[in-house]
Specification:
The protein is of the alpha+beta class. About 40% of the residues lie in helices and about 15% in strands. The strands form three sheets. It has a six-stranded mixed beta sheet, with helices on both faces. Strands 7-10 form a two-stranded antiparallel ribbon. Helix 6 runs antiparallel to helix 7 (about 195-205), helix 10 packs across helix 11 and helix 10 packs antiparallel against helix 12. The longest helix has 27 residues, at about 290-320. It is globular.
Amino acid sequence: MGLNGGSQASHLGKEMVYAVGEFLAGVCDCARLEILDMRLLKGGAVQENYALEIEIEGGSDHGRHALVLRTDATSRVQTSLSRSEEFAVLKAVHAAGITVPEPLWLCEDPSVIGRTFFVMRRVPGVAAAHMLVRDPGLETARESLVERLGEELARLHAIRPGFPELEFLPECGYAPALNRVNLYRRYLDALSAPQPALEWCLNWLERCQPEAMDVVLCHSDYRTGNYMVERGELTGILDWEFTAWSDFHEDIGWFCARCWRFGRTDREAGGMGSREAFYRGYEGVSGATIDRDAVAYWEVMAAVRWGVIALQQAERHLSGEQESLELALTGRMVPEMEMDALMLIDKISGRVSP
């Protein structure tokens, strides 16, 4: 295994680069492997992602490859899967034909870089939400793109409990909404200060939970910012660390929630396009009819969930566990999430009895 001396990987530490190179050389069919570049990608508050460029000589993998190494960041969210579990999810959904980066290798040996990691193929495109929702070059492609995202979500939801490779995912029973309410209550109870607005919203969510639907495999963070787009085409759905069994409306509500439109509130499907196009793609593939009232309910849940996560992240900073301006600023978003939830409850109160 060799390392290009001019590589941008040098600032990461040669020990880490060489350790990764030795691991890859061991799992690849090759005579020689060289890491040409390894650099930390921007973003990744929950996980760290490193772009890799490698050159392989000999064997079935001969040639140059663009990869991504994914491992834990320091600010791991409580409900996040482990990297081993996320790798298993990625393998399952890739085998089911979902548009995701191809998962390649998993390393659970802590002696390599000190943390479990996996390597997948890198897909081209842009994921940054603030760029995608404002890119004028996407104007003619937005409706077809969100329709495609609806189709992909429907294919994901075709995976049901009993999938052998996903037995590690906890069962959610017949009341996914109530499970979420109870989980977020426990999280709020663990915080140092009371949160009356979010508690009130959770009480409303408990009283107004919709009729139980079929349980499916949910991405649970399906939103703009977690998929790649190149020239108006979807190239890969990312970040599967929150995957869980749940009501299929949860993913739809999360995607359409106001908090994930990144300022483009007029485009109700992820800040990218119309809700109608997204629904059309989903219903066309799934054959199911989306319950609009259930989606509205799950949009309230989305605002509450994001508010709880923001409080947890702020607590990491305030408690002294991890001093971080980013975590502190995340906590400043809570009032906006509370307002989103309360305004939506007020809007739908005529359709759903409080």
